[in-house]
Write a structure and sequence with these properties.
Elements (H helix, E strand, L loop, with lengths): L1 E9 L9 E8 H18 L15 H16 L4 E6 L4 E3 L4 H5 L1 H12 L13 E8 L5 H12 L5 H5 L2 E2 L5 E4 L5 H17 L15 H20 L17 H4 L2 E5 L5 E3 L5 H4 L1
Parallel strand pairs: 1-5, 3-8, 5-6, 5-7
Antiparallel strand pairs: 1-2, 2-3, 4-9
Helix pairs in contact: 1-2, 2-8, 4-5, 7-8
Length: 279
């Protein structure tokens, strides 16, 4: 089995929820169909520039609704698996070393890649599972980027990865230009919609204005559409908590769409950072 993985990050500093990471997995046998179905929508809607959450406007709303509708149809058909991780400002870690603070971005990214996909449960056949990993361009020094990719490369030596016979080459861990990867662009929209709603951006009134702007209204409509599509794969989906396992750890892999609210083990709740207290 060959798995293609795309990873992206968004919104490092959120009012309530920061540090958003997202990933999409497509099995090789589904890749051409997935790419063609998404491209067909873009061709029909004349969407030839990069698709991004920040570009959602009232004028482009219908085009984005159609594209994300097909994207989440593919998710419901289990031809794309989506994983999103984020943290909460109310979960405070009392003592963080300077190294932890300095490397927070990559430390969280590593945890996301290692655990969010449930890769240790992906291989039922016993055959070798190969990965092709595509990270959206990593915004840091060459040294830190290479160090992070080396840590990811060495994951295949860990027992849970060896048990599933997961292997990948260093040359198959790449940084890519999102403009050339439509799946990565749709992932950006899904990530942006989640961060938008969890951080109450739908309530923001522009400075000097008396009402919510048209662009914000368009984004809320797109978020509601996406949320409805997610709920079609899982009843009563709650975007702000870790998705339940329904009694089986294998669902870390099997479920088509999952959220993970990452909580450090030694964290404590800061009541001043809750939504109710902030309000």
């Amino acid at each position: 089995m060959l798995l293609h993985i795309w990873c992206d990050e968004s919104v490092k500093d959120g009012k309530f929820f920061p540090n958003f990471y997202g990933g999409a997995i497509v099995e090789n046998e589904d890749l051409i169909e997935v790419q063609n179905r998404l491209k067909n929508v873009c061709d029909a809607e004349n969407l030839y520039r990069e698709i991004k959450w920040q570009k959602v406007t009232d004028q482009y709303l219908k085009k984005y609704l159609n594209l994300m509708g097909v994207f989440f149809d593919l998710v419901s058909e289990n031809k794309i698996k989506i994983r999103i991780m984020f943290t909460s400002n109310k979960n405070k870690v009392a003592r963080l070393s300077s190294d932890h603070k300095r490397n927070e971005y990559f430390l969280l990214y590593y945890q996301f890649f290692k655990h969010a996909f449930g890769l240790s449960f992906c291989n039922r056949s016993g055959d070798i599972t190969r990965l092709r990993i595509n990270f959206d361009y990593l915004p840091d020094t060459t040294e830190k980027r290479n160090q992070f990719k080396d840590y990811v490369y060495r994951l295949q030596n860990q027992p849970e990865f060896q048990k599933s016979r997961i292997v990948f080459e260093k040359g198959h861990i790449a940084e890519v230009d999102s403009k050339k990867h439509l799946i990565l662009q749709c992932l950006d929209v899904a990530l942006g919609a989640t961060a938008f709603r969890l951080n109450h951006k739908h309530k923001v009134i522009p400075r000097g204005k008396s009402r919510i702007g048209k662009k914000t209204i368009a984004k809320e409509k797109l978020y509601k559409f996406i949320n409805k599509k997610i709920c079609a794969t899982r009843d009563n989906f709650n975007i702000g908590i870790t998705t339940g396992l329904d009694g089986s750890l294998e669902n870390l892999w099997m479920q088509p769409y999952r959220h993970w609210l990452f909580k450090p083990r030694n964290s404590v709740i800061d009541e001043n950072q809750t939504k109710r207290k902030s309000s």
